[in-house]
Amino acid sequence: MRHLAASIAVLIFAGVALADEPVKLIVNGGTIKSDPAPIIRDGHVYVPLRVAGEAVGAEVTYDAELKIVKLCARPPNYTLGNLGGACMIIDQSEGLTVKGRLFLGVRKLAESLGSKVKWDNQAKTVTITSAAPAL
């Protein structure tokens, strides 16, 4: 009976350790440090919007009154991926707010910006590769 209880305890704490495993973010070959770090929620990876947006070359601004985030290409004559324009608007309700930071699903963010995204489940690493900016 003692062995059964010990085995159950090991399984419970192993699950907690796995849940707390950090997610690594790599953008265009460079590791991006972020506080808070990217998270996994319901099987999806979410990244802090400002950190990821700036890492792919966008200017990120937040309008608290409208509760929207605006990502704009730098320099302004570039376009952001397949959006066909210089800016994109993200409503706060489209993401998760954690510790006062807006997180967005990494695939949605990357593909909206015309970037490629790859997830390595074993290494808990998400890699974003930006497309060359369009003129």
Automatic annotation (TrEMBL):
Name of this protein: Copper amine oxidase-like N-terminal domain-containing protein
Gene3D superfamilies: Copper amine oxidase-like, N-terminal domain
Signal peptide start-end: none
InterPro entries linked to this entry: Cu_amine_oxidase-like_N, Mao_N_sf
Pfam entry (one): Cu_amine_oxidN1
Domain (Copper amine oxidase-like N-terminal): residue spans on this chain: 27-72, 97-130
